[in-house]
Amino acid sequence: MKRFLFLVLLLPLFSVAQDSIKVDISNPHATVYTHLYFLQTDSYEPIKAAKTILGLPEEKAIEKAIKIKQVLDGKGLYVDVNRIPTNTNYKDTIGYSSYYRYVLFPQRMPQIYVEKIGDNWYYSSETIAKIEGLYKEVFPWYVQKLQNIIPVSGHKKFLGIELWQFVALLLMLALCFFIFLIVKRIAFFFLRKIQHQITKNTNIEVNKVLKKLAHPISLLITVAFVDKVFPSLQFGLEVNTWVFLALNIAVTVFWIYVFLKLVQVIMRVYAEFTERTHGKLDDQLVPILHSFFTGIVIVVGIFRLLILFGVDATTMLAGATIGGLAFALASQDTVKNLIGTIMIFVDKPFHIEDWIEAGEVVGTVEKVGFRSTQVRAADTSVYQIPNSKLSELVINNKGLRLFRRYNTNLGLRYDTPPELIEAFVKGVREIIIAHPETRSDSYNVEFTGFGDSALLIMVNVYFKSLAWGIEQSSKHRLHIAIVKLAKELGVDFAFPSTTVTIEQFPEKKGLSLKYDVNQERIDAVIDKVVKEFSKEKFEKE
What we know:
Elements: H1 2-20, H2 28-37, H3 46-49, H4 58-74, E1 101-105, E2 109-117, E3 120-123, H5 125-138, H6 141-149, E4 157-158, E5 161-162, H7 163-199, H8 204-229, H9 237-275, H10 281-308, H11 313-330, H12 332-347, E6 355-358, E7 361-368, E8 372-376, E9 382-386, H13 387-390, E10 395-397, E11 404-412, H14 418-434, E12 444-450, E13 455-463, H15 468-489, H16 519-540
Helix pairs in contact: 4-5, 7-8, 8-9, 9-10, 14-15, 14-16, 15-16
């Protein structure tokens, strides 16, 4: 009895507390709170909720207010009223800086927002105009008919879920499975057609990647089907919130996967293109671009996931900008090297496997990375040159030469007769012409001067092959032929020496060595040496 009297005494207090919640539409927070509060089960007063809608009859305003909440609940959009601004003159900074308005869900439902009209805040005229269309999208025509044909037994609950919802959920999952299989085949078919139209060929490796790309595309279509149908099952706000959060996370992950595979396909096609080009620097660009685009996809995907978990996009972008600025200031050398890398790929001063001279570094380019270029010297050691410095150096690219020039001086003894000098020069010329790796239309073999210990014969030739190994082999064959020519002619090569001359010496008539300058013999020797060299050439080929 005492308990009953106690409840009777407290009942008026509860009534007073209930009445103390009044309609408040003075700011965005108050308007949204008023709308949602008076449509809750334990505080259901739709007339008060309809006060958040301006310019409609009361009955129509109630209908619109209820449908706005049903759309939000159906899409699992939980309104966190604590995050709604209480500023009377609040201006949305995302695209609407000149208007007093607040969008509840800018990413997922931008059509529903409140705006300031006069001194109060109401649901916007755009929201009122579009709510019918949004309601039909969330709850299609068949929802009401489905409710009408469900028998009474179908509304019995098991584990808090009605039986018809169990059946509908199983049917939806079965349809999802069939949609996934069908769309996967269709997506792969069209992707292969598009790839064939672009590249004009069929590649097994590309087809494997296309199959992997078709997989997330079919998953995205399946998730879109679930997103469209699931609100019709009417599980309520709490379930819908978690389901749609999971769906949005899945969509983001699938899109990340799609773009990662798309990058892989594009890079595979680009790699095939670079293989057909002459230069190998494009080949080195493939892994760099692949890493770059992959990084962009992952970063954007992470940003999107953070937004789904409630992180404010404006704050996140501001933080990323400040953090990026601080990172750039702290790593200026890295930024310089990245710019240097870009300049190398734009200017293309060398290609992979080119022999270059850059400052004190001489060697073959092996790899161009984000930060540095790897050059292997002749002794097989490796130089790592920062791209910022390399882009500023004067680069002598030996790999771009049309021919390899070889210049040397041959020294003959001072006592060599003019006839043998001429014969030697003529023979060397004939050997150069007969050499398979030298240009026969561009060479110089001349008696150019008098050295300290020798008569100087200049030999200037151009080798056709740009490969260092072939050049050395060609030099070897040229040198052997010249040595054979000198031996057959009886010509000696000079070396630094001192000669003592004695004018008065018994039975010594002169200091000159005896040279055979018979012209017929000279011509026969030259002909013999050149023929032997040519024969050697044909045998090796």
